[in-house]
Amino acid sequence: MKTIAIALAAFASLSSTASAKEAVVRIPNANPQAPILSGVLVPAGTGLLFLSGQVPAAADASLPADSIAAYGDTKTQAISVFEKTKALLAAQKLGMGDVIKLSVFLVGDPKLGGKLDFKGFNEAYSLYFGTADQPNKVARSVVQVSALASPGFLLEVEAIAATRP
Length: 165
Fold this sequence. Notes:
The chain has helices at residues 2-16, 18-21, 68-71, 74-91, 118-125; strands at residues 25-27, 39-41, 47-54, 99-107, 139-145, 155-163. It is of the alpha+beta class. It has a single domain, classed as CATH 3.30.1330.40. Strand 4, helix 5 and strand 5 form a beta-alpha-beta unit. The relative contact order is 0.22.
């Protein structure tokens, strides 16, 4: 209920002034320590950039391309994906602070008994979101999947960024 009240208050403030109508409203999580938002209000007229799922670049090209070792652990792969995302955003004159939503697909790590490495992913995520240099957080979903396009990939991340006209 508290989150709904926050969302309604944010929407009311969004509707109240002309300058606020242009702003993306980030709805904080009920837990202020949470690394993610509860949601995001995107006003009419805001441009949206949908990035396809990004997978990591090989960290060690000398290793077999279908091996996890070639791409690294979940944290290493996530950093690679966020750097690719950052470059794609920059090409559109956007930054990580413009990201409003992430959909994250994690494969269970064999070294963790087939469980997803949520901790490793969050360590990488926290380098890009909710930092002193880039304080914006995002709405986010993280799910475990059985496999991705390459057996070496432990994650794939889709991003949505909002642009002001």
